[in-house]
Amino acid sequence: MTIPLRTLLAGAALLAVLGGSADASLARATSTNTTTASFTGGSWVLYLHNRPTPPVGNTTAQFALAMDTTVPTAALLNNYDTDCDAVAGRLITRNTGLSSEATVCRYANWQTAAYGTARALNGTMTLRIYAAKSGAANPTLIAFLRDFNPSTSGYTDLGSSSIAITNLVQTQFTLTWSLNTSIPATHKLELKIVATGTTNVLLAYDTSAQQSRLVLLQIPAT
Q1: Which H or E run contains 29?
Q2: pLDDT tens-place string over residues 162-193
C-alpha cells in the first residue's frame, strides 16, 4: 500500500510537536522543493554550532555562529566563552532580555547562510535547546527569531518565545513560534538568545549528546 506524502508529513510533524525524536524522519520526508519560497511542505533541522565546528577546544565568546543541517559529532562539551566564565558551554548573563542586547556574555546568536532565493517560514518553528540555571532561582530564557539583512546590517524581529529554566544540570527545553512570513533572498535567518531573572543561563550545543537545534515544519494545505 502506498502512503501519500501528505500523510507522511503530517505524521512526522505531529511527532515533532509532541517532542519525539522525529527530526531525522522529518528530514527524509522533506519535499525536494524546500529551497524556494514556493514549496508545499517539509521541514528543516538547523543545528547550533560553535566556531570551529566540530569544536576542538575552548574558545572565547563568539557571535553570528552557524546553524545548519550538519549533525554535531563532538564527544566533549567545551567552554565556549572563556572570557565570561570557566564553565563548559555558553553563559548567558541575565539582563533586560531585549533583542537589541549587544554586550558580550549577555547573548548568543546563530545565523543561516544567506538564502539564494526567498525562504518561506510558514508553520511551527521549534527550538530544542539544552540549558541549565546557575543558581537556585529560575531565570527566563528568551529566544528571538530575526530576519538579518547583511547588506545593511539591519534586523527585523519575527517573534520571540520564552521559558523558565528550572534545572541545575543541562536539560533539553522546548520553545515554539507560529510563523507566516518569509526571509527575502540574500537575507539570513537569525536566532538570538538572552536571559532575564536573578540567576544566569548556561547553554550546551554542538555535541553529539547536546544537539540543540531549530526545527521548522510546513504542512501542506488541505
Answers
A1: helix 23-29
A2: 999 999 999 999 999 999 999 999 999 999 99
pLDDT of residue 3: 44
pTM higher than 0.85, yes or no? no
pLDDT-based confidence at residue 218 (cuts at 50, 70, 90): low
Cα dist from 31 to 216, 217, 218, whole Å: 13, 11, 10
The residue to which cell 501528505 is assigned: 6
Contact present, 98 and 155 (Cβ < 8 Å): no
Residues in the chain: 222
Nearest Cα neighbor of 170 from 208, 133, 127, 200 is 133
Could you give the domains of the chain? Answer: 43-218 (2.60.120.260)
Instruction: Give the C-alpha separation, 123 to 44, whole Å.
Output: 11
- What helix, strand, coil percent values describe the chain, rounded to 5? 10, 40, 50
